[in-house]
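Ticket opened by: R.M.
Priority: normal
Category: complex prediction / small molecule

The reporter submitted a protein together with biotinyl-5-AMP and asked that the result be attached to this ticket for the collaborator who will pick it up next week. Submitted input follows.
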Amino acid sequence: MHDEKILKVLRSSPGEYVSSDELCKDAGISRAAIWKRMESLRAEGYEIEASPHLGYRLISSPDTLIPDEIKWKLKSRVFGSNILSYKKVDSTNDVAYSLAEKGMKEGTVILAEEQAAGKGRLGRKWSSPAKGGIYMSCILRPDIAPNEIPRITLFAAVAVAKAIREFSGLAPEIKWPNDILINGRKVVGILTEMKADQDAVNFVVVGIGVNVNTPSESLPRAATSLKEEFSRSGSVTDLSRIDLARKMLERLDIEYALLKKKGFSPIIEEWKALSNIIGSRVKVMTHSRTFEAQAHDIDQDGSLVVRRERGQMEKISSGDIIIME
Ligand code: BT5
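Result attached by the on-call engineer:
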């Protein structure tokens, strides 16, 4: 079991030794227990230096999605107020859904190192190998109508795209409705699920999958990872999933507050600025039809508005698009 009290004390003097006496006092543990606790932290991947005279010093932390590691320095109010992290689950969305049904609070975040049955939309699969990705699901209880649910996907796409841009300096682009691409290849997928009755949403689960250090051989051909895109600039080291996860939660928090305070219009504007589809010729595929049209706008409920051949407008609330040019 990972010991947050000890870590807190070690972190309070970055790069410096903390004496055994101080550790005992501040972390509230006995001298005899220190060594064992340090060993178990090391087994978790913490690099801790020990000196017989000076005490202990934290050199580095593991890039495992440990809730306390993410919460440390986390500046958000709603997102991540409660974080649960698993080694392996079938799908973080399924875990979040069943916890939400039991009343788990808004802002609860479920993370996993690996998913055995990661889900895309419409029964599709999300490749979720261990160690390389972020598989995150957030529970929300927004005051919106069921038909406004696409708004949630769009708000999350804006937040994650901005987080990636701030974190890596790369230039992510949003593709309606739920993809984030870099250099034309998919790096993030978002799956929004909800429980609702006729006119009210009970809760929403926003699932976000990000390929961070994921090796390309475990991804579909049209996919990429942040590490792969980053390495084009010459750097090949792994990126910190903890730092990115923290940044994502902070950005989601900011955009969610904006959505609540100012409504959906500012989110649409941000979405358009981050997307390349408005004005493009697209192939639209819904569950029943496939046709070509021009992407014209994003509607107030999050639908895509397209212009058909004879100039007539049509609203697409769910489906996929391919950009033709
Ligand atoms: C999505 O569906 O893009 C939504 C993906 C959501 C994944 C997250 S991870 C945390 C949470 N828990 C879950 O179980 N799911 C969510 P869709 O638009 O239907 O795209 C699925 C398609 O993307 C697949 O059919 C593949 O072509 C492609 N794909 C699968 N895995 C991928 C990956 N890791 N990276 C990029 N593309 C992938």
